[in-house]
């Protein structure tokens, strides 16, 4: 029932109908209709009428709004919260709905209004029906239009209720779409049929709740990583949510957060048990480019078979952090595709069905576990891909690809300690299988390619195991524990031979060790396995054997090898066994003979017939006995093995028909027929050509080779031309070390060759002479790879971006003959590759980008055969002077440096494509010299550089030119192209430069940019001009516009002596159709004494068939030379030659108006602008009232205050200084009127005690004007501007004051203690100005550089300009400058202080309180501004729009950044530097704003790893309110170094008023990843992640840690070893060496002891005493970081021996040796190493046998200093230790007399010795990085075999003879050959490791000689002895001199 309203109220309502505007109604309560008074108007009840504006406010009595009929409000405004619209009625009409911030509304009913909905930030609207906010597409169940930045919540009837976002309906909505319940699609209705539809969507975030579905159905796009469709919103889901795609390929660029507990939470918290469905209806590519975060499960679902197409989700971001599982259900063909290596590194993958796929898109990738009963794992692309995973149980297929692709393979790498189970029968992949940890299990039969087994790992097969052709095996036997590969069935081989590499075997003893085993008998044999990198030693020999269903490594005894060469350099003959050990039979003919490391030398051969030859060690030369020598005659095998083995084959072996097998080492071809007719197997060794040898052995290369072909041409040019051999080389791979060229000639027949190519040095030239061929193995190295394809196509695939050498593409320059095709940009090379293009046509098989550098070789022309429509990007440098011609039409982009290319680029121009130089964000080098040509008119050359660039080449043909860059493009070439010139908006092209004129021939200019004419010619008028045409003619330049209408110019500026010519018709300045402005700077050539220019004079403007019409905006000024010319000439009349036509002044303009803004006004010179005379401006007046300091001018020194006052102007010529030397006087002022010139002004106070000197720099016209003027008229008439180009200096007690309404421009440096600007403007354009205090209220324009050292708060004028302010004093924070530096104070003054950031600068002062608040704005000027420990207050705000560094760290604690607000805007780059070792809470802010797109970097100056909570967080300070992008968190980039090491990603959040640093760490030992050696790995274990509590107290450790964090490569390896004390490990081996010295020294003494057995002695025993001095030097070379040493010792021995009988002598000796020890190690260890020995010895001679026994006990005293150097520091330690040693030596000799008198003898000798040393543990001192070293012990047994020769000679006058001795022994050691030391950090003993020394060679040669010279009559002897011993990497030199006395 309609209520009865009071009559007055009804009358008021009736009256309101006739009012022109309706008042807004506010909701009260009740029903919304046109009858109920549910509203209030001016606090009175009211009834709604259609058309009323209504508002729902917080004052409403009820928030429930029941709409009972159709209502049509004019507008609806919601300002309150909690409102609910419901009822059977609806809102209609054309009005709109607006929610203000803080408002909330639920709309339960359907509505039909069409005005749209605005949801402002902070507001929320919830809809229960798709049309709750109206709709413009009911069929598509579309939302009505929504805009704003608030929240739109969709809460429909149930999860399946559809709704859609149609076309532009949410194009302006930037807030959050929350799909709480319902099925929402973007584009079309969720269940539509057919194609999708494009829609605009700007929401920053999409939240999808448990009952929500959000899908895209945009249609279109292309299948690929770049789909050409994009969706940019962030997406968040809860458990049960569905997201996905119905139709259209699309890139998702926003981040994705999966399975949040609450999608509305500011900080994501994930539900690990949750699941989100990703639904893909049609088979499309959905590419996730954003970061994928979350946990739980993402289930991939396919909804339509779509003709068998692939429903593909592609992950492209390496920063993804999702830790759950990707579950590919596979209803129809569905793929999870990985396009980045770590895109799914933290996630598992589950494949459920045959249609489920995991695809690696041209990349290797890492996942967690792989599980599932079915599916396919495969790769795409053209190179080898590897899937790394930690475990799982997967029964599906694993294969290379869906179809065979040349070069494409898939490998599997198993990491982690767990198990991975795969179905062997389903594994068809051909790539390498690598087991880095745990177990890899294959069920059933399995076929595998190469297999690499790390130590302690296992690979098993449930059934039979088959090795694919050329499969190689690798085993690490460290800590061996049985066969690493175990087959549950049999073993089958697809190839004849398989290479086997073994490591970690060096410590194994004699015996056999299983590598691989199989359960069932198999037909494989030892011959099927070819060993690689097995290095036999002097004691042990290694071999592979198949025995008892197992492949084993057998370690044998070298001494048991039959027919082992022992002859050193000797002849090898068939019938002699003299040079052989373990020989059986009369000679080596027909025997298998072996040459080892033991007795290497030159082997002379005449004719030998062995069965086989094994060269397993040493350096041998096989040389002919004569020119007729037949050499090796055999059909057996010559094998060379061992990495250090060298065999120089210096003889022809024409009858050698067997096999030459290179398993290791080097075989040197020293003769043209060295290999005879043998087959050549490359199984790991190298073939080297001797100098002058170039034999083609390609025909002999055998197809069963298992390793790459390694050939060193050694400086020779060698050609291999046998096609089958070359094919084998390219299949096996080739390694080319050494200089010289190896040319391979290949006649391809469509074949694919997969061998890897390595060019280490020299040139490898591949000449494909015919057919099509493909190389898939890739190439590497630093040499030159030549590729030539004379006919057919040569295809190169794979990733060759690591190649650091040169690719030479040489050909005949033809466009139709053979070509080289590269599969991708990476296939041709990378950033370290130089591609020399020299006539060989080449192309890429796909649109691609390459980082390679290109040189177009001089004198060549090359076709780039780009495919039509494709795009190619070159990011490397382009150089050379050859031509590059593109065929056919394609798009080219060159972002690298092209400045050194001087040749020609030619594009066919047959289609509308581009050739671009630079790109977004590319600065460029500033120069392009390339010539650009295009016969067609469709292609455009595009320039896109952010810095100014000069194009000096010529653009020709019909080429179009486009300028996109923000840096101006200058065309300085004589361009002849008639194509279009396109200049984008905001870009500029300049024709010519001040020094070089340019030209342009085209008639069309497109685009909204600016074309500036500087110096040059338009060969044709521009008939189309879309942009802005500007004439900025350089001084002295000439611009010819080619007959154009000058009014097409926007502005004209002509420099002194320049000319703008070639204009047709009137040139109008000002007005709607005219030129905006004219600025003319006249030089001397533009002045004259008459109207007509005299010789040497010219007009500035040349206009045909028209006049110069000036209506406005014209400035005429004089340069300083013209001013000087006028002044020095004292001219009465001056003609300014402006135009060669009439000048017409319009709109009341006068000639004087033209000088209103002139830098130098004529009035300032005493001249009057008389008027216009034709094309001249006439100046007239007497130039007599000017004070002129110049040659023959006025005095340059002024001492009178009034001297200059009468003059209208003061002129100081260049090279002169006007000095004002005035006494201080507070009652006077010195006037300097209208100062101008190029000289200097200096003001000094000659008597400071009498006052100050006040000098007024006055700029005004000094004439008398009749009548009374207004202030405005006075300024206009009396303003005089002048320019002073020199320096102005004012000394102490001088006040420099700028007065007058004009502008004084100072081009030099202004230096003043007191500067006051009272009137007008002071413009500083020079550098080096210095001001102490600044005063006044005038204008200061700073365009140069000025330092302010004092107080400027009294300056109340304006500050502006683009110059540099160096603030060391105090000033108010108001104004704008180009850059700010210094350490002064800016005071808040209620204004904004803007730093334009035009140059690098740093301010280290303070932002202080003042008279108000202040804002420091940093603009994006291209430079970087630093605030260094700025002291700030809450009175200030800082807004960064550009690049700003905030340095909070310093010598003390971090400074705190205290501000009212800190605003980091979109596009800004902010770097915060603070010391994380100290209190990191460096922020104290009221407000923090970080917009999306702002870059934030944190850097630490600390030396310690940052201390984080267990959750990886750290508090950075206080922030009371924050707005952090669209997701409430700010991603940050972290600086390098120690503090942030190991942190993979980090972000900032604000929680509870605190700014929180959040992070995720990589827990691996980063030092271990840098360590390449054992000692470095020990250092890594010591130093990684030392506690901060320790580092804070340990400056050396802290500095060392920082250096380790920064170190890379070899330097990191050595520094880690140094930190571990690698040098100390050599102490043990040095002590062992000295003990050996002692035993040898005493042994040498005994050889001259004893009595003559032929004589009878009555007084036995006889006693002898002796003393000797000894010196010794011993060295062991370092092996990488394994320490060597040098020990130089000197000392003495005192001994006593007793001759008990003629046969037996015994004695005792004491020795002291004092040594200087120096380690050869990374840590520079040195010190003293002293040894003391007590030695017992005895000698027994019976018959001819001699027995010698020496036993010694020793003590060692060692002191050691270590010095560790590293970048940025060093430290020293010292320590000492003791040790003991004992050893014995037994020697057996047999005396063979050499003459009848027994005066000389030869004594074969054999000895054995045992030595033991032990050094005590010790702890270093002197540094906090000191170490504790454990004890070192070594035990060694040595065997010696040799001979000693002795003779008596040199009889003296007393009939006594000297005994001479020489000896030589071959020695072999068993036992320890290196010493080890356990280590620990002294400061943290729980950190331990072990370091080791280098190895001593086990085989050595000792040589020595001695003499005993009798002294006196009886028994005195002087003896001398010297010895030398060398081993591999070790040598020892010893000398002894002494005296022995018998008594």
Descriptive report:
By secondary structure, the chain is mainly β. It has an 18-stranded parallel beta sheet that branches. Helix 7 crosses helix 10 (1609-1619) and helix 9 runs antiparallel to helix 10. It is globular and about 145 Å long. Mean pLDDT is 92; it is low at 1-22 and 1264-1269.
Put the structure in a nutshell:
It is built from 11 helices and 179 strands.
Discrete helix count: 11
Helix content: under 10%
Which shape, going by the Cα principal axes? globular
Q: Radius of gyration, rounded?
A: 47 Å
Measured distance between first and last alpha carbons:
153 Å
Beta-strand fraction estimate: over 45%
Keywords:
mainly beta; 18-stranded parallel β-sheet; 179 strands; globular; disordered N terminus
Task: List the topology elements.
Elements: H1 7-16, E1 25-27, E2 31-32, E3 39-41, E4 44-46, E5 53-56, E6 64-67, E7 70-71, E8 75-78, E9 83-86, E10 90-91, E11 96-99, E12 104-107, E13 117-119, E14 124-127, E15 146-147, E16 151-155, E17 162-165, E18 176-186, E19 205-217, E20 230-231, E21 234-238, E22 242-247, E23 250-252, E24 256-260, E25 275-280, E26 285-288, E27 292-294, E28 297-302, E29 311-315, E30 325-328, E31 334-338, E32 348-351, E33 356-361, E34 365-366, E35 370-371, E36 376-380, E37 384-389, E38 392-394, E39 397-398, E40 409-414, E41 419-423, E42 433-435, E43 439-443, E44 446-448, E45 451-453, E46 458-461, E47 465-467, E48 473-476, E49 485-487, E50 491-493, E51 498-503, E52 511-518, E53 529-532, E54 540-546, E55 550-557, E56 564-565, E57 570-572, E58 580-581, E59 592-595, E60 602-605, E61 607-608, E62 612-615, E63 619-624, E64 631-632, E65 637-640, E66 646-649, E67 659-662, E68 666-669, E69 679-682, E70 686-689, E71 709-712, E72 717-720, H2 723-732, E73 734-736, E74 741-747, E75 752-753, E76 757-759, E77 763-770, E78 773-775, ...
Parallel strand pairs: 1-5, 2-6, 5-8, 6-9, 7-10, 8-11, 9-12, 11-13, 12-14, 13-15, 14-16, 16-18, 17-18, 18-19, 19-21, 19-22, 20-23, 21-24, 22-25, 23-26, 24-27, 25-28, 26-29, 28-30, 29-31, 30-32, 31-33, 32-35, 33-36, 34-37, 36-39, 37-40, 38-41, 40-42, 41-43, 42-45, 43-46, 44-47, 45-48, 46-49, ...
Antiparallel strand pairs: 1-3, 3-4, 52-55, 54-55, 56-58, 116-120, 120-123, 122-123, 159-162, 160-161, 161-162, 163-164, 163-179, 164-165, 165-166, 166-167, 167-168, 168-170, 169-170, 170-173, 171-172, 172-175, 173-174, 174-177, 175-176, 177-178, 178-179
